[in-house]
Design goal:
CATH class of the largest domain: Mainly Alpha
Order of helices and strands: HHHHHHHHHHHH
CATH topology of the largest domain: Serine Threonine Protein Phosphatase 5, Tetratricopeptide repeat
Oligomer: single chain
Largest sheet: none
Helix content: over 70%
Distance between the termini: 39 Å
Structural class: mainly alpha
Shape: globular
Strand content: under 5%
Radius of gyration: 20 Å
CATH architecture of the largest domain: Alpha Horseshoe
Length: about 220
């Protein structure tokens, strides 16, 4: 029953059914509360749900229980990769790679090292080769998408927005500018500002999907 709930939880994560995934992980942990791999997977789920603090707590708990578990190290590395703590990515990667030494892992390691060093095109190529060795590895596909974000022209607006403080800063700036235009009786300018924000927001939501389709298309051609 524990393994079944864990597997279902992972499937629900991949299908974006995060509430169902949480129910499965909680049931699995009710049966075996000290399973480090399930705790780490639950932490990854919290990360996907945007709860970074809880994700960090769960992954740290899993590391305390079993610091050499390959699954735990996998999710620990993904945590640092996604939250963009580059100073900790290489250390987490080193521990992760120790758990496996096959060709796929070597290419994966090379890709991540290139990514951490800012060589995004080289990172993409190494990760692409790793994925071709194991096309069932959705984790590599996810990292390919992250690497693509740093190099693809489609992500240029996101990169600029992230440099100025992220989407929340853009949202607050839009409200402030629109309010100023409104107080100055420049209603058309206020409306244009809001419409531009909505268009940019929709663009930012659609871009990851386009990027993922592009990556799959390239990989299928290979």
């Amino acid at each position: 029953p524990c393994e079944c709930n864990e597997l279902l939880g992972r499937i629900y994560i991949e299908t974006k059914k995060l509430t169902n995934a949480e129910e499965c992980f909680l049931e699995a942990l009710r049966i075996e509360p000290q399973r480090a791999d399930i705790i780490a997977a639950y932490g990854y789920l919290m990360l996907k749900a945007g709860q970074k603090n809880k994700a960090r707590q769960l992954i740290e708990e899993a590391l305390k229980i079993d610091p050499e578990n390959a699954v735990v190290l996998h999710y620990n590395f993904f945590y640092h990769l996604i939250v963009n703590k580059k100073d900790k990515q290489i250390a987490a990667l080193g521990e992760y790679i120790k758990a496996s030494g096959n060709e796929e892992r070597k290419l994966f390691k090379a890709g991540i090292m290139e990514y951490c060093n800012g060589n995004f095109k080289a990172a993409y190529e190494s990760l692409r080769q790793a994925y071709l060795l194991n096309p069932t590895n959705e984790g590599i596909l996810e990292i390919l998408q992250i690497a693509e974000q740093e190099a693809d022209i489609l992500y240029f607006p996101q990169r600029i927005i992230n440099k100025i403080g992220g989407p929340i800063v853009l949202w607050l700036a839009t409200i402030a500018i629109s309010l100023v235009f409104y107080l100055l009786n420049m209603l058309n300018a206020a409306i244009i500002t809001v419409v531009n924000y909505i268009i940019l927001y929709m663009y930012m939501r659609i871009t990851p999907l386009i990027c993922r389709i592009k990556i799959r298309h390239r990989l299928n051609k290979d």
